[in-house]
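Our platform keeps sequence and structure together, in a single record for each protein. Nothing more is needed to write down the fold, since each code stands for a local backbone conformation. An entry from our holdings is shown next, in its original layout:
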Amino acid sequence: MKQLLAIVAATVLAVITPLTSTVSAAGNSAPILWVHGSQASSTCPIVDSKKQSTPFKNVLTKRAYTGPLVPIDYYCGDKTGVSIRGAGGPSTEQYPQNGYTQETPIERLGLDLAWFIYNTYTINGQSVNIASASMGGLITMYAVTHTGTDVFPPYLLVDNVLTFSTPFGGVDKPTVGTEAQYVKMICGVKTQCNQMISGSAFLQELTSQPIPAEIDVTTIGGGQRDILSFTSSSAISADHKVNFYNIYPIAYDHAGYLNDQNLTYNMSAEITEGQGTPVRYTNGKPHSLEWAYRAMTSTTW
């Protein structure tokens, strides 16, 4: 697992050289699962998970990453990745499949993801890493925090989890109207949409769960054009929290983190290690997908 170097400076001026890191052999070859976010649809949502994950794959290739990047499909219309639909067993009252639409509860998707990981990797002794976007982070964290309970697998071999702009605290920066009105406009009134509103029973239950100590979690958010705040995207007990607080050189919107393949170390970022004090850097930090690579593979930063 990663053990990050302690940071003692309150403000650091421009640094243009890459962070020093040690990359483990296992970390540079373990499968990385890519879990996409929500997609509005009146019928059968479709997300091209392979296409969405391609920018990250390009960064991994440039960094000589040798393991597979596995795009995950869960909506009924998803066809370009590996499907986890039904991996958690038949539909039940507590975990209904509901046709794998936006009416499928996030809990059900977490159950499917957990069993997919267990049956595909864990029982074969293979650890995985998970990179997830928006609602995909909710699916991922539900899977890893509920494993070992109820009808979930007994355990999972997951080393690192990264979440991009995941609404752990809701969609709290609406560009129009109230949060509920904005979510209705961009997402609808479906089950998944309602679960992502601040204060929902789902978010309260999820964020109250302890994260397994063996899993290293990094959250990324804070982009000035994002529809959620850094407070929302980091509202879990993560090991590392990255806040892209500055409008320069890039002001990320909600999807922007997923497309920035720049390998230059010139970003402003505020970093929080565990329960420590946030440290603000005015320059010298990685762009979003480079940071994701390091979160997936590095043992020290």
User: Anything to note?
Assistant: The longest strand covers residues 158-164. The chain has one domain: 11-300. DSSP finds eight helices and twelve strands in the chain.
